[in-house]
Automatic annotation (TrEMBL):
GO terms for cellular component: cytoplasm. Pfam families: Sulfotransfer_1. InterPro entries: P-loop_NTPase, Sulfotransferase_dom. The lineage of its organism: Eukaryota, Metazoa, Chordata, Craniata, Vertebrata. Keywords: Catecholamine metabolism, Cytoplasm, Transferase. It is found in: Cytoplasm. The keyword Disulfide bond does not apply. This is Sulfotransferase. Signal peptide: none annotated. The keyword Ubl conjugation does not apply. Its EC number is 2.8.2.-. GO terms for molecular function: sulfotransferase activity.
């Protein structure tokens, strides 16, 4: 499939036509989840690939063999992308499924399922900067123009996969309706990777020994993943992702937005955040946290309820 210039619009949300079709999107919304499935849910640039790696390593008890030999899109395919059905047909054992779909499109399919859902959120200033840079290298996304142009579109939700506000609000407010739900943030993962891997292993009911935990943590560090061709997207041809224009594993930091945002842009986002997250109890970290084992954000619903 090429369709690099095609935008697929589905329920008023834009998706890159390169990987999405009406059929693939319909397939996702009607998907029959199995109770043994683990589903990674994110708005783009929020830590998707990182969680794919963490889960692979947790299930492998820290052994990096699968992480180093199978591309992430094979071991944890995106449900809404056209190749997913074929990948899942060939899968044996518990499935890891990834999705960027907003809650309103996927919640009905998950409603009666006991699949384990992990939602990862990241503060929207860092997401916007990461997404901007990704637009510059990914030839299946539109030219973002200047950061200021992009930020305007991003805040309006006029970007692929829709609005960050709708995504985060939608999934977190539906957390209580999902049988097995774990909420975690990119910032928490940065601050306490060891604790985050442990949290995921508990949620997946796959306890690790301390040695296994340390091994898993080592292989999902930014530096390790940056060199891993199975997750750094260097296997993707240049005409689709141009690594001369940027790296997928770019900075991996909290608070990098400060290098791009003007004070005015920062105030604009703060104002929008206050007005659009009024019903939310989420507390995002906007700056690089001290490395401690303390969790960084709270949510009204219990983080994991089984
Ligand atoms: S995508 O395209 O939606 O799948 O992107 P996603 O994987 O969600 O997000 C990419 C950003 O996550 C960073 N990343 C990491 N940060 C810290 N540690 C680890 N191990 C890690 N793995 C991925 C990646 O660098 C992107 O963030 P930015 O800010 O652009 O560096």
């Amino acid at each position: 499939m090429a369709r690099l210039d095609v935008t697929e619009t589905f329920h008023s949300i834009m998706f890159p036509g390169h990987m999405h079709t009406k059929d693939s999107l319909n397939y996702a919304t009607k998907f029959k989840f199995q109770d043994t499935d683990t589903v990674i849910v994110t708005y783009p640039k929020s830590g998707t690939t990182w969680m794919q790696e963490i889960i692979t390593l947790v299930l492998g008890k820290g052994d990096p063999t699968i992480a180093q030999t199978q591309p992430n899109w094979v071991r944890a395919p995106w449900l809404e992308q056209y190749y997913c059905a074929d990948v899942l047909k060939g899968s044996t054992g518990p499935r890891i499924i990834t999705t960027h779909l907003p809650c309103q499109l996927l919640a009905p399919a998950l409603q009666h399922s006991k699949a384990k859902v992990i939602y990862i959120a990241r503060n929207l200033k860092d997401v916007s900067v990461s997404y901007y840079h990704f637009h510059k290298m990914a030839n299946f996304l539109p030219d973002p123009g200047t950061f200021s142009d992009f930020l305007n579109d991003f805040l309006k939700g006029a970007v692929h996969y829709g609005s960050w506000f709708d995504h985060v609000n939608g999934w977190t407010s539906h957390a209580k309706d999902i049988h097995n739900f774990l909420y975690i943030t990119y910032e928490e993962m940065c601050q306490d990777l060891h604790g985050s891997v442990q949290k995921v292993s508990h949620f997946l009911q796959c306890p690790l020994t301390e040695d296994e935990l340390i091994l898993a943590q080592k292989h999902c560090s930014f530096n390790s993943m940056k060199e891993n061709t199975m997750v750094n997207y260097t296997l993707i041809p240049q005409e689709i992702m141009d690594h001369g224009k940027g790296k997928f594993m770019r900075t991996g930091k909290v608070g990098d937005w400060k290098n791009t945002f003007t004070e005015e842009q920062s105030r604009l986002v703060d104002d929008m955040y206050s007005s659009q997250m009024t019903d939310s109890s989420l507390l995002f970290k906007w700056e690089c946290p001290e490395k401690t084992a303390r969790p960084l954000m709270t949510i009204n619903t219990s983080e994991s309820h089984t």
